[in-house]
Write a structure and sequence with these properties.
This protein is elongated. The chain is mainly α. Helices cover about 70% and strands about 0% of the residues. Helix 4 runs antiparallel to helix 5. It is a single-pass membrane protein.
Length: about 120
């Protein structure tokens, strides 16, 4: 009985010291959070315009360069690499699996252009 009382007392002391530590750190934590929020990049049109992603939609007639960008391969990639990239992309973008019919048609068009 006495040992359980000692353990309970030590547990309460640990909780108390932990709460004291947290309460003393709250003012600095607030300042750090404010600095972190202020240092986040702004999401405006200029930031988005300078992103690393391909800007613009599809061209009216697909070129070899655009086909290579769509399949994420080199424009002079061999047929085996083109087919592998096409298969991998179609697994995630096939209309039967919830993908877009438009994107799957563009993938097929890109594969046909790069295989020629």
């Amino acid at each position: 009985m006495a040992s359980s009382m000692i353990v309970a007392g030590l547990g309460l002391a640990a909780v108390g010291f932990g709460a004291r530590f947290v309460m003393r750190g709250m003012p600095t934590l607030g300042k750090k959070m404010a600095e972190a929020v202020n240092s986040l990049p702004k999401m405006d049109s200029t930031t988005l315009a300078n992103s690393k992603y391909y800007k613009g939609g599809f061209e009216p007639k697909m070129t070899k360069r655009e086909a290579a960008l769509v399949l994420n391969v080199s424009p002079n990639a061999n047929t085996q690499r083109v087919r592998g990239a096409y298969k991998k992309m179609m697994l995630t973008n096939h209309p039967d699996r919830g993908g877009s019919p438009y994107l799957s048609s563009k993938l097929s068009e890109a594969k046909d252009i790069l295989e020629k």
